[in-house]
Fold this sequence. Notes:
Helix content is 0%, strand content 47%. It contains no helices and 20 strands.
Amino acid sequence: DDIERIDFMSATTSDPSNFGQRLYGTLETRRGDEYTGFICWDIDELFTRDVLDGEERGRDRRIRFSRIAAIERYSSSSAAVTLKSGDEIVLRGTNDVNSGNRGIIVCDPGFGQVKVDWDEFDNLVFFDPPSGLPYDAFDGGRLLEGTVFTEDGDTYTGTIRWDDDEEYTWEILDGEFRNNDFNIDFSFIKQIEKRSYRAATVTVWDGREFRLHGSNDVDEDNKGIFITLEDGDEIMVDWEDFERIEFAEH
């Protein structure tokens, strides 16, 4: 309640964080999909100094993530944890390692983030993160630009307002893919193609495709795709008439 505003700026020191490194690794789902990026475990732990809680043979264990090499779903109520020492233990009894887990988030630098629920999770292997982007790499975002194609064969090129809501590259497209929740930055989206009244295929610039559903961003509840043409006229294309959009690369 006391905050008026926050001004962000480039860091003035290279000293390591007191929280440790951000967690980073590759997560594999039970369907075989893999996602690599920064990890937030149980929507809570995201640093190497954070702790994984559980019980082993009736004994409470608190293990820092800095000691963990991998975590594998052992059952709906337990997880097998491989330590960097090579030891493996099975933990249970807390929402860190059972179906009460609130989800594992992977922040993928290539598209945004995906949240994987415990029922879809198979394993996660940790490794050191690449060097982070410098503060100056963020330009504050730009207006969305692209070409909209309709089912009648019309095309419209200009600045875009998606779902009568998102109009900047830093905004987010939401949807579900194979029971996992996706939040994709528009800056990473190359194309969106309608597949049905209830789904669309989203292609990101690195070539990956995700058939998303479960959100008005990608189904018939979309409030319209608005294109402002070079002459200033605005065209609205509704989901029924929409075929695909190709975004301009920045």
